[in-house]
């Protein structure tokens, strides 16, 4: 298998940015109102990715476990902020439960994938652990934001039903359970769709990146499956854990439904 790599120069980045500019122009012509957001998001993504590239290069070169942990900690804190900014209609004060959910599930999943499946040397190999954290965290953040939004929306829609259930003697969990299940299912939809379409309709990012970089396609496929399996398990665990921690926020101490203000 050849090891030819294809680097992207500054002109390639400019062409990519021009594609976004063209899309924003179409948005302006059709008065869709998303052109400015599209341009801002693209510029922000370019800066963030380049900055992360420099930081990862430094961490990999330093090969220090404390730098790896520090970078992962920053990513987790940013993940909390992004989760809460994307989630709509959620109460304040959820930063702690979201951070705890991410830390517990991410630690468990990275330990399983890195130390039991890949088994890098050294165990904290930054070129493996940091990108792995980023891929798992990105998908989990999206699932948590969708799940939280759907949970509180569903609880509001089911207000009369919940009051009736509580009046008939149902526990808080029994009254909230349909909304919990609904939110977890919605959060899992993108993951299950990716699992179903991978290898037939799509070639996911990690596999495509390894092949473009000159890696063996079969090895790339194995890595991609491990990542997809980890994302599926992590999404379900993180969504379930956060729901167990937040569903009581919809009830008073007297077991009555408490609508969000």
Automatic annotation (TrEMBL):
Chief subcellular location equals membrane
**Membrane-crossing segments per the record:** 6-26, 38-60, 66-84, 96-118, 124-149, 186-213, 225-247
Which GO molecular function, any one, fits this protein according to its record? ATP binding
Give the coiled coil ranges: none
- Provide the Gene Ontology terms for cellular component: plasma membrane
The record's section on InterPro entries has: UPF0014_fam (IPR005226)
The keyword Hydrolase appears for this protein: no
Give one Pfam family.
UPF0014
Bilayer topology reads:
Multi-pass membrane protein
Cellular compartment(s): Membrane
UniProt keyword annotation of Nucleotide-binding present: yes
Write the record's keywords in alphabetical order, separated by commas.
Answer: ATP-binding, Membrane, Nucleotide-binding, Transmembrane, Transmembrane helix
Can you tell me which family this protein belongs to? Belongs to the UPF0014 family.
The entry's protein name is: ABC transporter ATP-binding protein
Q: What is the lineage of its organism?
A: Bacteria, Bacillati, Actinomycetota, Actinomycetes, Bifidobacteriales
């Amino acid at each position: 298998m050849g090891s030819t790599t294809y680097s992207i120069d500054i002109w390639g980045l400019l062409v990519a940015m021009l594609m976004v500019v063209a899309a924003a122009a179409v948005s302006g012509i059709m008065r869709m109102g998303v052109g400015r957001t599209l341009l801002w998001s693209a510029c922000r993504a370019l800066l963030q990715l380049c900055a992360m590239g420099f930081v990862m290069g430094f961490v990999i070169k330093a090969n220090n476990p404390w730098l790896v942990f520090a970078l992962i900690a920053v990513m987790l804190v940013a993940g909390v902020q992004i989760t809460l900014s994307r989630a709509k209609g959620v109460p304040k004060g959820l930063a702690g439960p979201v951070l705890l959910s991410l830390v517990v599930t991410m630690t468990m999943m990275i330990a399983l994938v890195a130390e039991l499946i890949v088994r890098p040397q050294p165990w904290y190999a930054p070129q493996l652990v940091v990108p792995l954290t980023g891929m798992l965290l990105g998908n989990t953040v999206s699932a948590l934001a969708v799940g939280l939004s759907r949970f509180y929306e569903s609880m509001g829609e089911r207000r009369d039903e919940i009051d009736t259930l509580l009046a008939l003697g149902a526990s808080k969990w029994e009254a909230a359970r349909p909304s919990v299940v609904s939110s977890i299912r919605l959060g899992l939809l993108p993951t299950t769709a990716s699992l179903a379409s991978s290898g037939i309709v799509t070639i996911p990012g990690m596999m495509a990146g390894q092949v473009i970089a000159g890696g063996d396609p079969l090895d790339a496929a194995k890595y991609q499956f491990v990542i997809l399996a980890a994302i599926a398990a992590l999404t379900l665990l993180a969504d379930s854990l956060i729901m167990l921690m937040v569903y009581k926020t919809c009830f008073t101490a007297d077991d009555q439904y408490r609508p969000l203000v």
